Amino acid sequence: MEKKVSYSEALAEIEKILEGFNDPKLDIDTLADKVKRASELITLCKNKLHKAEKDIEKILEK
Amino acid sequence: MADNHSHITLSQLQASVKSVLAGGFPLPVWVVAEISELKVNYSSGHCYLELVEKGGANGVPKAKANAVIWSNTYGMLSSYFRGATGQDLAVGMKVLMSVSVTYHELYGLSLKVTDIDPLYTVGDMERQRLAAIAKLQEDGVFDLNRELEMPLAPQRIAVVSSPGAAGYQDFLNELSASGYRFDVDLFEAIMQGHSAEESIIDALSRIADDMVAYDAVVIIRGGGSQSDLSFLNSYIMCFHIAQFPIPVIAGLGHDKDQSVLDMVAAVSLKTPTAVAGYLVQRAASVDAELDMAESALSHAAAEVLAKESQRLQGLGVGVVKYSKELTHRVEIRLERLRVELSHQRSNFFLRQSNQLNSMETLLAARPMVALNRAGLQLDNMRSLVEGRDPQRILSLGFSIVRSEGRAVKDVSHLAVGQDIEITFETGTRTAKITDNGKES
After folding, report:
1. CB-based contact (8 Å) between A12 and chain B?
2. ipTM > 0.90?
3. How far apart are CA B276 and CA B282, in angstroms?
4. What share of chain A is helix, strand, coil (3-state, %, to 5)?
5. Which of A19, A53, A57, A61 is the mutation pick for testing B, counting most B CBs within 10 A?
6. pLDDT digit string (tens) for B391-422?
7. Backbone angles phi, psi at B257, to 5 degrees
């Protein structure tokens, strides 16, 4: 289920997941899934950031 | 039938009258009269006149007579007369002549002119001239035409003249030779003799019908015959000319003293050619003025252009300098912005990177914390659960007392001699109650 997530949407989701870990009513069953999801999102964001950086460098060098 | 009266024949009567007259007027008589008719027979050379004395009632003359100047006399007298007066004998003139009274059986009374005193005519003409001037001045019109403003360069001309006259042709030739444009309209008139007066007045009234079309009126007559120019002093004609609303220029081609027409006309010149010359000269001076104005305008314009050209050049230089400065400043600003952008970009990515890194760190840390917390919670729960384990309680030395299979909590439920079961950590034994706790 890979839907295109924007950078800001991804960030928001990561923050939500992190907040969720502080909640005492944490759902242990989904914990592992949540960690996986958050990890994937962070990787996604890092990639996007990197690509943007490269693109802008290219533009400014012209 | 007898004669009633004694009679003679007609010829006898005529002869008789003739001799009486001859006897009565043996010598010529000087007489003054006005010429009412004049005819020269060109083949014979004789001049036949009718003389009158005006002044009768109802315009009827007081006296009238036929006169004749025989050709040999006429040739002499007319040139003598012309020499003295500058004019030929003409109708309307008052003359002083020496006449012989002659009587002819067939033709009746006739006066034979033998001599003439031109000074009388001159005097009379002069008298008429002075009288006309005086009357015009008295009427207040003498100066009127001369006081009109002559247009700077009259170009639309009404000419009063006779078309066949050399003067008119000369006038036209002079105008067309000038190269300037003139619009000339001829108003024909008779320019000599006793009908000239009326003819000229008529021509003027025809011009007056279309007054706005003309800048000036020109009255000209050719040289040639000097005969009968007495109309030039005509009071009634000059009365009209003096009051004419357009300036009148006269070129009458006579070498006498100024006639009254010359005096009342706005401008008086000797000949038609001189009049043409006058008009041409006025056109030429306007032409020259226009040329000067054109030249001055051209110079002024050139000056203005030169000044403006200089000013623009100066501005041009200023513009170039200013725009270079401006460009330079903008370039500096752009460079600064570029550098700033570069920094901002780095900062931004750095910040984002840091954020992601912190998230990663949290991601690494927080789940474990949560798990630990959950673990602790479970441990707590186990403790609590274990705490409640009955075996644990027995191990502490406590025992469970049952009666009839059920645990006993209340001591009062126990009677003396009752069977109970006691469960210890290591087994169960039965017992009996021996007392009820009361002090005996």
Report:
1. no
2. no
3. 10
4. 80, 0, 20
5. A53
6. 888 888 988 898 888 888 888 888 888 999 99
7. -65, 165
